[in-house]
Write a structure and sequence with these properties.
It contains 1 helix and 4 strands; from the N terminus they run E-E-H-E-E. By secondary structure, the protein is α+β, with helices and mostly antiparallel strands.
């Protein structure tokens, strides 16, 4: 895995949107959209964690997500 690089303070002009936003804000929004699309319900149960890995040289975006939940396995047997 490559080095972690801090997100530079850059403002992005949103065409047709009217509101500019920072690169950090745009990446955060992309991450939440990807979570909702590929891991719906990530925010429920026992929580989740992960990271968005951007490889500019490849180019690729990889969303690593670890979902946590408590499971039970109940049994009842008449003898």
């Amino acid at each position: 895995m490559g080095a972690s690089v801090p997100c530079p303070e850059v403002t992005i002009a949103c065409a047709g949107e009217g509101d500019d936003q920072s690169l950090n804000s745009a990446l955060e929004q992309l991450t939440y959209l990807a979570l909702e699309r590929h891991h719906p319900g990530w925010e429920i149960n026992d929580g989740a964690c992960g990271e968005l890995v951007i490889d500019v040289a490849m180019p690729s975006f990889v969303l690593d997500c670890q979902l946590r939940y408590t499971a039970t396995d109940d049994h009842s047997t008449d003898l």
